Amino acid sequence: MAYTNTGFFLTNLIQAAYRELGQLLVSTATGGDATSIVDTKEKDKHDDTAWDNGGFFIIKDADGAGASPEGKFGFITSWAESTGTFTIPTVTAAVVATDIYGVCNDYYPLAQMQELANDALRMLGDIPLIDITTLDTASSKTEYAYAVTWKRKPPIKVEIQTRTGDADDFQWREIHDWQYRPATAGTAGLLVLPQLIASRDIAVWYVDKHPAVSVYSDPIVETVAPELAVKALVLKALAWQNRRMMGGDDYLLQTLNDAKIEYEMAKIEYPIWKPKRSSKLLILGSYVDSDNLKVPNE
Questions:
Q1: Residue 269: which region, alpha, beta or left (left: phi > 0; alpha: psi -120 to 50)?
Q2: How far apart, in whole angstroms, are the C-alpha atoms of residue 44 and residue 55?
Q3: How many CB atoms lie within 10 A of CB 17?
Q4: Can you tell me the distance from the alpha carbon of 255 to that of 21, in angstroms, rounded to the nearest whole number?
Q5: Closest to 197 in 3D by CA, of 136, 281, 284
Q6: For site-directed labelling of 223, which of 33, 101, 123, 287 has its Cα 20 to 30 A away?
């Protein structure tokens, strides 16, 4: 799964970080199948233990169409120096000649990099998110259970779907007179709305940490620039390795210091867009709006 203008995924993030760390050997397969990558060009270059506990990535499929197994990654089961064969877990579609692949050793373990990727994304701070699937308006109802995952801060904006029957034209309209009522830890709060017409989607804009990513195809939220996400992961990886080495490697320490500077520069060059919080309205008495979406008080 190559990075394109249509998406940046967990696999792209980890691959890019490994490349920047100098830990990804990239080559072209000479053959393979669903459980192996064969590269005869690498024969006799690495001993049989070189890739123990290492990881692999299928960077690009041979036909360039983004088909499976492109983007898949996992742990190398074994490496046979004599044949240039990496044994890997099943990747559904077969690896074939001219597929571009990458391998890394266990200096930065793949499982650790997956965890550090989530740490790095959380380090970026709050990002704008929107939920249009959890809440729908209902008749005779003004209090709606607020998803626990939204609870860190009140919503930025609340909207209602004003048109049905056209999936490409919901004509969202902002609701100003809402209230948020918090609740005890681990339980849902309440979003208090005026009485609205039933069976309409409610869109809640909110800010939170980046959602967890775990599968190769999990997307990185588009408001986060790929360059910023990669710098954050590289910084996290170097800091982890420096702690592991107890600060005893001068080159690693200098590289970590450089990564800190590059990350701070990336935050300036690629700031995360955040919408402005909408103003609230103080409603006195009752009203019926122009689209008859609100039911007047009795």
A1: alpha
A2: 19
A3: 26
A4: 9
A5: 136
A6: 101
Name the residue among 19, 35, 24, 25 with its Cα closest to residue 85: 35
DSSP β-ladder status, 143-146 and 189-192: antiparallel
| Tokens 């490409």, residue located | 168
Q: What is the CA radius of gyration of the chain?
A: 25
* pLDDT tens sequence across 223-269: 999 999 999 999 999 999 999 999 999 999 999 999 999 999 999 99
Q: How far apart are CA 80 and CA 285, in angstroms?
A: 79
Q: At what angle do helices 250-269 and 226-244 cross, to 10 degrees?
A: 160
Query: Comparing 179 with 291, which gets the higher pLDDT?
Result: 179
pTM (2 d.p.): 0.87
pLDDT in tens, 89-124: 999 899 999 999 999 999 999 999 999 999 999 999
Residue for token digits 């702690």?
243
User: Rounded distance, CA 287 to CA 60, Å?
Assistant: 58
pLDDT digits over 270-290, tens only?
999 988 877 665 555 544 454
The confidence score (pLDDT) of residue 288 equals 44
Give the whole-angstrom CA distance, residue 81 versus residue 72.
Answer: 23
With a CB cutoff of 8 Å and minimum separation 6, the contacts of 274 are 126, 127, 128, 207, 223
* Tokens standing for residue 164: 């049905």
Measure the CA–CA gap between 181 and 160, rounded to whole angstroms: 19
Please count the other Cβ atoms lying within 10 Å of the Cβ belonging to residue 54. 20
